[in-house]
DNA sequence: TTTTAGCACTCAATGAGAAAGAGTGCTAAC
DNA sequence: GTTAGCACTCTTTCTCATTGAGTGCTAAAA
C-alpha cells in the first residue's frame, strides 16, 4: 500500500506512545498529553495533524469530537506487529512458572493449574484447551466386569494418561475371558497408536471372525467399543480460570455485554472455535477485538499459543482480556506457559 | 415469642402475596398493588397499617420513604418456612431430569452435567460438590512402571470410580514384582474400605517387616503411598455452571459486588464451606441472604440438598440465585436432582 | 512546505432545579 | 378496627446551564 509510506518514524513513535498510554489508563489520549508522553519537542497542533492522518488510515479514532484518540483494532494490530518489542521473561520468572507445572496424570488438574497460572500472572482470564492428539500411543488396558454385560474399561495412553469408559456387551463374559482379552491386547499392541490399533482390530474382526477363538473376538469387539474412533472423539473442551478479573476493567461495565461474554465462556463453542484456529499457527497468535469474528468478543483480545508434545501440537492455551491489554508483558508469558505445559506433558524423564 | 401472635391469618396472606409479587418482578410492592393482588376486599390504608406491623417485626422493609415494601431475609425465611407450599415435580419432569443423569465412570463429567441441569432448569447458577466418601470400597489396583522408580498407580473404588496417581519408590522395582504386588492387594482386599485397608497395611508394615518377602513390603509401601489417608484427602471441590444467569437479575447490577461474587466462585472455599454446612442437614437446606454468614453472598440465596449413596451423604448440590428466587419451584428441583444424582452414583443395577 | 499559535466549536460530564409520580404516615371520621 | 383524605417524603426524570477537554480550521511564522 502506498498509504503506508504516510506513517513516518515520528508518526510511529506517536502511535506507539498513544497505544501505551491508552493501555495503561484506558482513557482517550489528547494531543497535549501525547506531546508530553512522547518526549518529542513538538506542538499539540502538529500532533493533531498527525492524528488526523492516522485516523484517515484507520489506526486511531475518537469516541466523539471532543475526546482524545483511541487506537482501533487495526491500530493495535500495527502496534503489535511492528511497534512493540517483546522481551523474553527473565529466567527467575520462568522458573517460577515451571514450578507450577509438573508432570501429572491428572490431566484436567494440570490444565486447570496452567489456566490459573495464566490468569493470576496476567490478571486476565486464562484458558487452556484440553489436549487432543491425533495419535495417542497405547500403553495398557484393563477390563473390570461390573455386571455380566457391563464392563469398565480402563486404559492408559501416552505413558501416564488414564482414561476409562463403560461398555456394554451383547453376551455375558466371564472374568477369565476378560483377563485373557486384556493380556492379548497388552502384549500385542503396546506402544502402537490408538488409530492404528483400531484399524487393525476392525480388519481382523471382518476377515477372521471364525478363525480365531471366541475370546479374541470378544477382545476385539470390546476394544473396538472402548477406543473411540476419530469421529466419536469428544468434541474438545477447555478450562477457564479468572473470569472475574475481567470485571475490574471499566470497559467491561456494560452488563449486557458482560453477560453475553460469560455465556460464551460457558457455551464453549465460540472459544473452542477460536482456539482451534490458533492451533494451526506456529507460535503466539493474537486476535484483537473484531478479528475474532464474533460479536461477543468485540472489545476483547486473545493471546494464544499452541502447546505440543514431541513436535506435535496437541492443544492451545492463552488469555482473554480487554483489547487494551499489556501485550508486551502477556505475550512472553503465554509463550512460555505453552512451552512449559508441553514439557510437563512430555514426561519422559 | 408473644409478638408472633401479631401475624394473624390476614397478615400472613398479605405477606405471602407481597413476597410472591416481589419474587416475580423484583420491585417494592405498594399497598394498592397488594390489595389487588391479595384479593382481599380491603382498603390500602388497612394494608399500610399491617405493613407497619410487619416492618416492626422485621419481616419487611422499605428501601426509602416513598417506596413499597420489600421482604427482608427474615421475611423470606418466614415465607419459606410456613407460608409457602412446595408441590412435588410431576413425573414427566422427573423423568426428564433423570434422563440427563445416567451412571458414568467420569465423575467430573457427571457432576458437571448435574450442575448444568440445575442451572438450565432454574435459570440460576448450579453447583455440585464432588462426592467425598468416608469409606470408599476398594475394587481393583494396578501398577504401571513409568521409569525405574516412578510408578503410575490406577485403582478403582466404589465399583466404577477410577482414580490414579504417580508414586515414587526408594529403590528400583521390576515389572514382575509390581504384578505380584497388585495381585496380592487385589486378592486380599477386594471389597474392603480404603480406610480399613490403609490401617491394616500400616500395621503390617510395622509388625512384620522381616517376616514377609520383599515384594510384599514393596506392595504395602506402594499402597500406603497410593491410598491417600484421611488427612491428605483432597480438600473438596465443586463444579459450578450457569454463572452468567445471575447477570440477568437487576439486583446484581453492582459491578463491584458481582466481581466479588464471581471471585468467591473461583476461590471456592466460601462456597465449599457453605456446602459443607448443608451436608449435615437431612434434606433441602436454604440459606437466605445474610444467613450464609458471608458478606459476598448478601442479596443471594442458596438452595441445597445433600446427595447420598446407600444411605451415606457423600456430597451436596444446589443453586445460588438472588434472594428473590422462586423457592416453590426451585426447592423440589434441587431435591429431586440430589436424589437422582445419588441414584446415578449408586450404580448397582 | 511544515509547524505553530489562536480561536471558534463540539460534545460529554456535571449539577441544579422543577415537575411528576409513587407511596407512605397520620389524623379524624366511620 | 377500618377507611378516606391529605400532607409529606423521596425517587425518578427532564431540562437547562455550566464547565472543561480537546478538536479542526485558519492564518501567520519558520
Descriptive notes:
The structure is a homodimer of 349-residue chains. Chain A has 349 residues and is α+β, with helices and mostly antiparallel strands. Chain A folds into three domains: 4-83, Winged helix-like DNA-binding domain superfamily/Winged helix DNA-binding domain (Arc Repressor Mutant, subunit A), CATH 1.10.10; 91-133 and 234-346, GAF domain (Beta-Lactamase, 2-Layer Sandwich), CATH 3.30.450.40; 138-232, Enolase-like, domain 1, CATH 3.30.390. Helix content of chain A is 46%, strand content 18%. The first copy, chain A, contains twelve helices and ten strands. Chain A has helices at 9-25, 31-38, 44-56, 73-83, 91-100, 107-122, 175-189, 194-207, 214-226, 255-267, 269-279, 327-345, and strands at 60-61, 70-71, 125-129, 138-145, 150-157, 161-168, 238-241, 285-288, 300-309, 312-322. The first copy, chain A, has a five-stranded antiparallel sheet, with helices on both faces. A three-stranded antiparallel sheet of chain A has the order 4-5-6, covered by helices on one side. The mean pLDDT of chain A is 89. The A-B interface holds A 103-106, 108, 139-140, 142, 144, 146-147, 152, 154, 156, 159-160, 162, 164-166, 241-244, 247-248, 253, 255, 258-259, 262-263, 265-266, 347, 349 and B 103-106, 108, 139-140, 142, 144, 146-147, 152, 154, 156, 159-160, 162, 164-166, 241-244, 247-248, 253, 255, 258-259, 262-263, 265-266, 347, 349. Chain A binds a DNA duplex (30 and 30 nucleotides) through residues 28, 30-32, 42-46, 48-49, 51-52, 62-68.
Amino acid at each position: 500500500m502506498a498509504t503506508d509510506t504516510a506513517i513516518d518514524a515520528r508518526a510511529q513513535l506517536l502511535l506507539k506512545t498513544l497505544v501505551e498510554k491508552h493501555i495503561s489508563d484506558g482513557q482517550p489520549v489528547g494531543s497535549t498529553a501525547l506531546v508530553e508522553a512522547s518526549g518529542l519537542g513538538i506542538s499539540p497542533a502538529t500532533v493533531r495533524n498527525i492524528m488526523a492522518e492516522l485516523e484517515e488510515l484507520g489506526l486511531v479514532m475518537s469516541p466523539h469530537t471532543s475526546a482524545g484518540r483511541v487506537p482501533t483494532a487495526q491500530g493495535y494490530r500495527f502496534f503489535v506487529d511492528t511497534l512493540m518489542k517483546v522481551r523474553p521473561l527473565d529466567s527467575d520468572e520462568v522458573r517460577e512458572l515451571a514450578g507450577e507445572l509438573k508432570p501429572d496424570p491428572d490431566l484436567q488438574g494440570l490444565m486447570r493449574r496452567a489456566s490459573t497460572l495464566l490468569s493470576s500472572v496476567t490478571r486476565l482470564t486464562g484458558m487452556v484447551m484440553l489436549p487432543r492428539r491425533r495419535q495417542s500411543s497405547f500403553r495398557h488396558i484393563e477390563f473390570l466386569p461390573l455386571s455380566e454385560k457391563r464392563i469398565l474399561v480402563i486404559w492408559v495412553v501416552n505413558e501416564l494418561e488414564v482414561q476409562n469408559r463403560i461398555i456394554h456387551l451383547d453376551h455375558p463374559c466371564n472374568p477369565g475371558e476378560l483377563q485373557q482379552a486384556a493380556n492379548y491386547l497388552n502384549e500385542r499392541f503396546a506402544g502402537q497408536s490408538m488409530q492404528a490399533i483400531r484399524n487393525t482390530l476392525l480388519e481382523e474382526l471382518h476377515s477372521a471372525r471364525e478363525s480365531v477363538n471366541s475370546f479374541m473376538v470378544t477382545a476385539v469387539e470390546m476394544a473396538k467399543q472402548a477406543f473411540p474412533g476419530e469421529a466419536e472423539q469428544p468434541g474438545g473442551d477447555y478450562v477457564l480460570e479468572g473470569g472475574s478479573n475481567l470485571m475490574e476493567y471499566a470497559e467491561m461495565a456494560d452488563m449486557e455485554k458482560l453477560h453475553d461474554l460469560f455465556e460464551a465462556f460457558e457455551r464453549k463453542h465460540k472459544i473452542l472455535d477460536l482456539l482451534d484456529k490458533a492451533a494451526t499457527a506456529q507460535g503466539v497468535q493474537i486476535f484483537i477485538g473484531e478479528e475474532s469474528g464474533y460479536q461477543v468478543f468485540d472489545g476483547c483480545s486473545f493471546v494464544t499459543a499452541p502447546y505440543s508434545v514431541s513436535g506435535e501440537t496437541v492443544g492451545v492455551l492463552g488469555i482473554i482480556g480487554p483489547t487494551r491489554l499489556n501485550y508486551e508483558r502477556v505475550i512472553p508469558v503465554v509463550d512460555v506457559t505453552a512451552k512449559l505445559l508441553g514439557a510437563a506433558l512430555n514426561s519422559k524423564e
